[in-house]
Structures are given as structure tokens and as C-alpha cells.
Write a structure and sequence with these properties.
Layout (H helix, E strand, L loop, with lengths): L2 H10 L4 H13 L1 H8 L3 H14 L1 H26 L3 H22 L7 H8 L3 E4 L2 E7 L9 H4 L9 E6 L8 H18 L7 E6 L15 H6 L4 E5 L5 H7 L6 H5 L6 H11 L6 E7 L1
Parallel strand pairs: 3-4
Antiparallel strand pairs: 1-2, 2-3, 4-6, 5-6
Helix pairs in contact: 2-5, 3-5, 4-5, 5-6, 5-7
Length: about 290
């Protein structure tokens, strides 16, 4: 892999300097193993990365980041074959930076600890088009924890092909940008993946929790995102995604919740809601093609 491409990639996805240095050290230290890993089939490559992460969290995270940068080079060649614009490539690979920052914030590690998620971008299972990401997938009501009664409200059937919408954590959730992204995504997939006939768009997220209306400011970007969909049903009751997204906490007792920081208006409102006994869940939103 051309080092100029890697350095240019780091620059264009705005990878933080500390993460960049950790990746370059790993590229030098584990060069033969990384080259071998990048050329392995997807399942084996990701399993090896996870094993490195399990053996040593710090060095494994740097190894995973180096692997992602090298694998991005392979992905770029496939983008070129399909004549997909460079803007989509670099926007999609920006997810590497998003998760490198998450590793630093949550565990003070320079590298990546979410290699299982990043495989979606690296192996062309997911693309970022504008503000949102779109992943190939099929509707699985059981995996989505959608009750039988709620399934009847959804215009998709079990096994239907859809594009799952994901929201990168690197900017405001502007409603107009999200709307234009959906329109652009429809055109993108019809142009570059015409063989993928999909029934519509779907999104499973804490952002689609009806309970958000109980404490979020009226007219907020998150509540407007809810209105982007044709309909939303409740799923995954009593989850802790709100804690993870706002404070990088997996769980928190009432005492720990009381000590959570209130650096933003949303944190203050969410914290008060949780301390008052409020519960959170995910929602499944659907949008017809």
C-alpha cells in the first residue's frame, strides 16, 4: 500500500494526531501480519483483529486502526471499479475517525475498539451519503425485538430487503440535511447498485424513542428526525443507549446518574428525566421507497 495514500486518507478523514501516530507505529511494528490480515477473507480478518484487541486492549486498538487504514485502500480500489465518487468514499471512511475519537473519550486509547462495526464500511456493506449512512440489510423482526402486534403496523415483511439508516456522531442532526440525504441515497443505490431492489428505508435507534418527547426541547433536531419517518414502533424496552450516547456509560445506578456531568442542555434534561424514574427504549422507524 502506498504510504502517500494512507497519509492522504488520514488527512482527509481528519484522523486525530495521537491516533494517527499510534496507527503508523503499528503499521511499522506489525507490517507482515497486517499485510497478511488485510488479504484474509472478511470473517477471518475481523476475528484476528478482535483477538488482538482481546489480548491487549491498547496495542490491539492500534493494530485495529492500522488494519482499517490498510483495508480502506482495498475498498478504494473497489469504489473505483464501480465508479463511485471519491466524496462518498472519504465521507464513508470518516467513520474510522468517529470511532477513534470514541475510543479516546471512553477508554483513553489511541486506536479503535469497534472493529466489528467498522467492517460495514470497509467491506462495502454500508455507505455514507450526505449526513446519514445506509447499510444493506433484511428485515428481521425477532432480531429487532419488535412485538407481533407492532409488526402489523410495519409495511415491510420478514426478510424484505431494506436500507438501514445509521447516524454518524460527527455533526448536528439537521432535518434538512437528513431529508436531502435520503433523496440522494435513493439515487445513489439505484445508480451504483441497481441489482439491489429494496422496499424502503428503516432505522432502529434511541433517537426514535417516543419518550424523548417527555424531556427534550420541542422542535429539537432529534424530535424532528423522528418526524422524518412514515411511522415508528417501540422496540428494545428499557435499554441504556441514552447513557452510552450522552455520557459513554453502559449502565449507571441512581447515585452514579446523579453525578453525571451536565455540560449540555440535553444532558441536563436527560439526567433530570432519568433521576425522576424515566425509562428509555429504542424505536424502529420505516420509510417507504
Amino acid at each position: 500500500m502506498d504510504n502517500r495514500f494512507l497519509l492522504d486518507l488520514c488527512e482527509k478523514i481528519e484522523l486525530p494526531p495521537d491516533a494517527r501516530r499510534a496507527a503508523l507505529r503499528a503499521l511499522s511494528q506489525y507490517a507482515p501480519l497486517l499485510k497478511k490480515t488485510v488479504n484474509l477473507p472478511e470473517q477471518k480478518a475481523i476475528a484476528l483483529c478482535k483477538h488482538r484487541l482481546f489480548r491487549n486492549r491498547k496495542s490491539g486498538a492500534a493494530f485495529c486502526l492500522a488494519f482499517c487504514l490498510l483495508r480502506a485502500g482495498k475498498a478504494y480500489a473497489l469504489y473505483k471499479e464501480k465508479q463511485i465518487p471519491d466524496t462518498v468514499f472519504y465521507d464513508t471512511m470518516r467513520d474510522i475517525t468517529v470511532w477513534a475519537r470514541t475510543a479516546k473519550q471512553s477508554e483513553n486509547i489511541n486506536g479503535l475498539i469497534e472493529i466489528g462495526w467498522l467492517r460495514q464500511s470497509l467491506y462495502l456493506h454500508m455507505f455514507r451519503v450526505g449526513r446519514l449512512q445506509y447499510q444493506f440489510g433484511k428485515v428481521d423482526f425477532r432480531a429487532l425485538h419488535i412485538p407481533p402486534q407492532s409488526q402489523k403496523q410495519i409495511p415491510f415483511s420478514q426478510g424484505d430487503r431494506v436500507l438501514f439508516i445509521h447516524i454518524p456522531e460527527d455533526g448536528k442532526l439537521d432535518f434538512d440535511l437528513c431529508t436531502s440525504s435520503v433523496f440522494a441515497a435513493r439515487k445513489f443505490f439505484e445508480t451504483y447498485f441497481p441489482q439491489y431492489h429494496f422496499a424502503g428505508f428503516a432505522c432502529e435507534s434511541w433517537l426514535l424513542d417516543e419518550n424523548n418527547r417527555r424531556f427534550m426541547r420541542a422542535g429539537s433536531n432529534i424530535l424532528r428526525f423522528f418526524d422524518l419517518f412514515d411511522g415508528v414502533v417501540e422496540t428494545l424496552p428499557k435499554n441504556h443507549e441514552l447513557l452510552r450516547r450522552l455520557w459513554h456509560e453502559k449502565r449507571a445506578s441512581k447515585r452514579k446518574t446523579a453525578n453525571l456531568p451536565e455540560n449540555t442542555d440535553l444532558q441536563r434534561r436527560a439526567k433530570a428525566y432519568l433521576l425522576a424514574g424515566g425509562t428509555t427504549h429504542n424505536g424502529f422507524g420505516y420509510l417507504l421507497k
